[in-house]
Amino acid sequence: QVQLVESGGGLVPAGGSLRLSCAASRSIFGINTMGWYRQAPGKQRDFVASIISGGTTIYADSVKGRFTISRDTAKNTVYLQIDNLKPEDTAVYYCNARLRNIPYWGQGTQVTVSS
Hints:
Number of helices: 0
Distance between the termini: 40 Å
Structural class: mainly beta
Largest sheet: 7 strands, mixed
Order of helices and strands: EEEEEEEEEEE
Shape: globular
Number of strands: 11
């Protein structure tokens, strides 16, 4: 099992930046995939970005060039750097880990972008 705790959300103006953090309760070595999803009000939860155990990163087309996923294995933490924020980025951002093909979720962190 793994517990995930997100932080770093907030209210920012359009064009600003945020760095979200996802702290895992165990070593992230051996976790197949860690990633971020987001859910806007009234919409489904959508994939944003992921980082695979070997270090390969994958992004949704809508965020390529503005979002960067990274990890610090010493801190058991995955980050999501978000630049040039847009109002449509407003959502609850959830951290996800897939361990032995079982998905785990954090509680989410709210990102609100003002126009």
